[in-house]
Automatic annotation (TrEMBL), chain A:
PROSITE patterns: VPS9. Pfam families: VPS9. Residues 209-219 have a biased composition (Low complexity). Residues 442-474 have a biased composition (Basic and acidic residues). Residues 206-225, 231-266, 442-482 are annotated as: Disordered. Residues 523-664 form the VPS9 domain. The lineage of its organism: Eukaryota, Metamonada, Anaeramoebidae, Anaeramoeba. This is Rab gdp/gtp exchange factor.
Automatic annotation (TrEMBL), chain B:
SUPFAM superfamilies: P-loop containing nucleoside triphosphate hydrolases. NCBIfam families: small_GTP (TIGR00231). This is Ras-related protein rab-21. Keywords: Nucleotide-binding. It comes from the Eukaryota. Coiled coil: none annotated. InterPro entries: P-loop_NTPase (IPR027417), Small_GTP-bd (IPR005225), Small_GTPase (IPR001806).
Length: 664, 205
């Protein structure tokens, strides 16, 4: 079933005759576009008390169906034939549907019963549908709907769009650098070349609609475009009043509906084309800020840049221009939607950089980090060689075909595929990599030791060379022992590293969707857990039965902060690594702050550690801990969960279940 | 051999972690590569030229968390039950642990019953016979150990490693047969065929 949402006016309680007419016209209009079926799936509204909340300011609309009387429901049913009503759908799913609409021009979204949607097939359908979407009407919809997609955060589809978006920008950047040679001559013209095509799309739509609805052509075209202008109005209300006054004349005209929508739009584009200031700003913006952001290749930063620049532009230019400017950016996303499917993506750098910074404090961990990086580099060079690239492609193809209907089965299969591939690679390359690695290390250490030995020799030459020789022999023996011990540890590290790499290069595609599923599945548990957590929040350390030896003066802030970083992580391996860091933070704080001697009192036992862990979780700001837990468990190694990380995962489980078992 | 999971059980303040620490101190010196945490430990033990890595998990003995301890038992191959020689209650409480273990872990486990603080012989309250009877009942092995002096600890872990090896060899779980279905299995074949081709080429040349 295909999906479309309609705009009914905001804050209206009843559907008037005019609006029913509108809807009918719109339906006919859409059906004339192609062979696609359309249904209204969701009509939901915002109540009065939610004034503060940001309306999702798209032309998509939204009236609460539960509050409606029976007759109105019937009216709607008459209009659309087979209506399917979904009452228990979250806010998130609304956004999601909106974004899919924005993505595909108002078509394509699959729902199963009870609001569980089948996202797995979406990816396959996208490519099929996109070819059908060459018709002009859809382009218009994309431009209208996709305006606000940057506002949606914490949401899976956003990243998908952004990925597409980034890639397209990269292409544009290449384009720019070529043109930069002609700096002074051809500035500005090339940017707007493509825009004409989109505008052409607009014109075609209007003509098309006029043909199809010959009786009510003028009303229909006006109305459909009015929708887009309403959207502007609402936006201005959210801003301070002064700006409202500035833009008021335009808006009033639009409200009256006297002006042809086509003219309004065209005037907007003309102002852009004529305004040289805007052109310059746009170019400088593209060159400087976007170039930087691309150098970093960081999604988050790219978003930030966008926001900043939007702010600047709002001050200096009128709204029409901003509208056009946004569309310029979005145009790239649309182009991709029609051409390609998303390629493999790397995980964003922020998280790994954060890791490096926070971990860099401890010397031991620094050494580990170096080893980790070296090994990772070695493994990556092997995995992405010509032989294995086919294997990787096969895996990614296989995974994309798997259905995500039942998530936990999906997770199982994914994990098994990973483990299989990991075993395959460890069998093949582990010895080679380790040998190479050990050789390098020996060379480095050997150089250092030789230097040291030469100095010693210089001093001891007079005394005799025997002592020096003895020292050498003992050192060699020590080295051999160390190396043999290290190899075992390194083998264990290799498995983890391969896992991480696989997750980075294969799971990043779907990770948002998968996690989104988990959130939805365990929503009830999250809510009940949060309610219980609220009651504990204010309790002190002694209430959790942390003995006085281990009570810290800083209230374990460092551990709590690292735990809060869980919200930044997306991949399961990152999430699990955070537990280890939390544990290390706890040990450090206990060492530094508390009246505690490891020699006298003995080491920290699990008896002392778990209450501290519970205390930390009660203070953490995360809201979806239970779903995160299930997510991590589903994607951590099943049978061989005997790592250090697995230990802390179970302590995490225990802490969560302890809190949820509390009764007041 | 892959890692085998071992769980340390016992009442609070019996000396679980001190046994832990002693076992760690005797041989384990390299702090460079693995960051040693006091609750989790990995160690290789040699048994007749074969190596086993034991990953030993410390658990909470307090009664508040007792209901949640079964989460620790998952996939564990062995359990070390620790009691205090100078405390009769600690031995009695072991029976509760054993009942829990049987409920939670369906299959058999290698069990060790260990009496700690054997250096305090004057304050002994638990008779050796009681402990050994209990061990016979359950099919466990009994050891008297002192974490302070390091008496018997290495032998205990050595014995444990032996029994775990035996146990794992006897109860080998069948490998997953579903793996062959997957597309990815083709990759291995491809590589092998490539190798064969190469060999053939060599022969021709």
């Amino acid at each position: 079933m295909d999906l479309i949402l309609f705009h009914l006016k905001k804050k209206k309680k009843r559907i008037t005759e005019q609006e029913t007419k509108l809807l009918r016209q719109y339906q006919e209009h859409l059906q004339s576009l192609g062979d696609l079926r359309f249904d209204v799936i969701k009509i939901q509204g915002f109540t009065k008390r939610k004034k503060k909340r940001k309306l999702i300011l798209t032309p998509v609309g939204i009236v609460d169906f539960q509050e409606k009387s029976v007759t109105e429901k019937n009216d709607l049913k008459k209009i659309f034939g087979d209506l399917r009503i979904y009452t228990s759908i979250d806010k998130i799913s609304i956004r999601e549907s909106i974004l899919t609409i924005s993505f595909l021009g108002g078509i394509l979204f699959k729902y199963e019963s009870d609001g569980n949607c089948d996202l797995g097939e979406l990816g396959n359908e996208i490519s099929d549908r996109c070819q059908k979407l060459s018709q002009p009407g859809t382009l218009k919809n994309v431009l209208n709907y996709s305006k606000d997609f940057t506002n949606f955060t914490n949401y899976g589809f956003e990243s998908k769009l952004l990925d597409l978006f980034e890639n397209e920008i990269e292409k544009n950047m290449v384009h720019l650098t070529e043109k930069e040679s002609k700096k002074l001559d051809g500035l500005g013209t090339f940017v707007f070349d493509d825009l004409d095509e989109t505008l052409g799309g607009f014109e075609k739509v209007e003509t098309h609609s006029s043909l199809s609805n010959s009786d009510s052509s003028s009303d229909g075209s006006d109305r459909t475009l009015k929708i887009s202008h309403n959207f502007n109005q609402v936006k201005t209300k959210a801003r301070p009043k002064k700006r409202n006054l500035q833009s008021s004349p335009n808006l009033r005209e639009k409200r009256k509906g006297n002006i042809n929508s086509q003219n309004v739009l065209n005037s907007g584009w003309e102002t852009i084309n004529n305004n040289e200031n805007f052109k310059r700003e746009y170019q400088s913006f593209e060159k400087k800020s976007f170039h930087k952001s691309l150098m970093v290749k960081n999604r988050v930063q790219a978003l930030l840049y966008q926001k900043r620049i939007n702010k600047k532009l709002r001050k200096q230019t009128s709204k029409n221009e901003v509208f056009g400017f946004k569309n310029l950016l979005l145009k790239s996303a649309i182009n991709v939607a029609f051409q390609t499917t998303p390629p493999l993506l790397r995980r964003s750098k922020t998280v790994s950089e954060m890791k490096l910074k926070s971990i860099g404090k401890h010397k031991i961990l620094k050494q580990n980090q170096n080893i980790h990086q070296k090994l990772k580099f070695a493994v990556e060079s092997k995995i992405f060689s010509k032989n294995e690239s086919d294997a990787l492609k096969k895996i990614s193809n296989y995974i994309s075909k798997m259905s995500m209907g039942n998530i936990q089965e999906y997770a199982k299969e994914l994990r098994e595929v990973f483990e299989e591939f990991r075993d395959y690679i460890t069998n093949k390359y582990s010895e080679i990599i380790l040998e190479n690695y050990c050789k390098e290390n020996e060379n480095e250490k050997g150089n250092e030791n030789e230097k040291g030995n030469e100095k010693e020799k210089g001093n001891e030459k007079e005394k005799g060379n025997e002592k020096g020789n003895e020292n050498k022999n003992t050192e060699k023996k020590k080295r051999k022992k160390k190396n043999s011990h290290k190899k075992e540890v390194l083998l264990y590290q290799l498995e983890r590293i391969i896992n991480e790499i696989l997750e980075e290069h294969i799971m990043t595609k779907n990770i948002n969707e998968i996690y989104f599923y988990f959130k939805r599945l365990y929503k009830k548990q999250d809510n009940t857990f949060n309610q219980k957590k609220k009651k504990i929040i204010l309790k002190s350390q002694s209430d959790f039965a942390i003995p006085k030896k281990f009570q810290s003066t800083s209230y374990f802030q460092s551990a709590i902060n690292t735990m809060n970083q869980m919200s930044l992580t997306k991949l399961p391996s990152d999430g699990i690594n955070i537990f280890i860091r939390v544990a290390q933070n706890i040990y450090n704080t206990v060492k530094n702050e508390c009246n505690y001697n490891a020699n006298v009192d003995g080491q920290i036992t699990a008896d002392d550690f778990i209450p501290i862990f519970v205390y930390i979780i009660s203070k953490v700001k995360l809201k979806n801990l239970m779903s995160k837990k299930e997510f991590l468990i589903a994607f951590s190694d099943s049978g061989d969960s005997k790592n250090e990380a697995a230990y802390y995962l179970t302590t995490f489980e225990i802490a969560l279940e302890y809190i949820s078992s509390l009764e007041f | 051999m892959k890692k085998q999971k071992v769980v340390l059980l016992g009442k609070g303040r019996v000396g679980k972690t001190s046994i832990f620490k002693r076992f760690l101190q005797n041989e384990f010196h390299d702090n460079e590569v693995t960051t040693i945490q006091p609750q989790y430990l990995e160690k290789q033990v040699k048994v007749n030229t074969e190596k086993v890595t034991l990953s030993i998990w410390d658990t909470a003995g307090q009664e508040r968390f007792r209901g949640l301890n079964p989460l620790f038992y998952r996939n564990s191959k062995a359990a070390i039950m620790v009691y205090d020689i100078t405390d009769q209650e600690s031995l009695d409480s072991l029976e509760d642990w054993l009942a829990e273990l049987k409920n939670q872990v369906g299959h058999k486990i290698v069990l060790m019953i260990v009496g700690n603080k054997s250096d305090l012989k004057k304050k002994r309250q638990v008779s050796i016979e009681d402990a050994e009877n209990l061990a016979k009942k359950v099919g466990a092995q009994h050891f008297c150990v002192s974490a302070k002096t390091g008496e018997n600890i290495d032998e205990m872990f050595h014995e444990l490693a032996k029994r775990v090896m035996k146990f794992v060899k006897e109860n080998k779980t069948p490998l997953n047969t579903t793996k062959s279905r997957r597309n990815f299995a083709l990759v291995n074949e491809d590589v092998e065929t490539k190798k064969k081709k190469k060999k053939n080429n060599d022969g021709c040349c």
